[in-house]
Amino acid sequence: QRRVRGICQSQMARHFARVLPRQLIRARGCSSSTEMGWATRNLMQAREPLLFTPGPLTTSASVKQAMLVDIGSRDARMIQVIQDVRDKLLEMAGVSQRSGWECVLVQGSGTMAVESVVSSCVPSPDKGGRLLVASNGAYGERMATMAKMCGIEVDILRYDETETVNPDDVVAELANHKYSHVGVIHHETTAGSLNPVEQIGQAIKQHDPSISFFVDSMSGFGAYGVDLEAGNVSYLVSSANKNIEGVPGFAFALCRKERLVSEGVLSLIHI
């Protein structure tokens, strides 16, 4: 079945590469001898290249086909699609709305989703907000930079890119200052380092259950499992175009509703 599906997808890609340029020419009222545009000449290939970057990834023919349907933003079908996507993302994480979780979709990159959580859920210093970022790469540093630009007090527990975050080090740092939030990268994309998210979360909870634990799982979610409940995770962020092989431009945050309502800047809005 997998081989047949692959063959069908390859045949569909070749069909689009052969048919779409001619359709574009006819739609513009041009003859077949008219010079095609750059995109048509360079992007319409007989076979699509395989992308082996952390993301974007190669999208399947079925994903592309699902995007060929226009639905109005207030259409009942669109509302149902959005709810279905939210439910399935929570299901992938082993949680649900019934168990006290929410999936917030973000119309932007993964970076935008990280910034959304940092800027919306970490209080300002005068309200007791302080973020500890355990960083072993560029994306941990980026999270800290976002916090600083938002006026949030932030400290960085730094590791080399070849090292993983040690839960004992995190607890030792928490003993030195009062923190409202701890942030960590699940899978540090720049080095391929996989951090022990669940052990870190458990250590934070044992030290101070009131601290919210924020996980950037951009290139981890969908490939590596995370038990959000056992790992004491409050917020987990990822993107559509990484391991779940969707299209770029969409991201999401899986949020523990109780924390989101109490900490979110827009907490007066009913979720």
If you had to describe this structure to a student in words, what would you say it looks like?
It is a single chain. The protein is built from nine helices and nine strands. It has 271 residues and is of the alpha/beta class. α6 links the parallel β2 and β3. It is globular, with a radius of gyration of 22 Å.
Question: Which helices and strands, and how do they pair?
Answer:
Elements: H1 2-27, H2 38-43, H3 61-66, H4 76-92, E1 101-106, H5 110-121, E2 131-135, H6 138-149, E3 154-158, H7 167-174, E4 181-185, E5 187-188, E6 193-194, H8 197-207, E7 212-216, E8 235-239, E9 251-256, H9 257-263
Helix pairs in contact: 7-8
Outline:
The protein is built from 9 helices and 9 strands. With 271 residues, it is an alpha/beta fold.
Keywords:
two-stranded antiparallel ribbon; disordered C terminus; alpha/beta; about 270 residues; disordered N terminus; seven-stranded mixed β-sheet; 9 helices; 9 strands
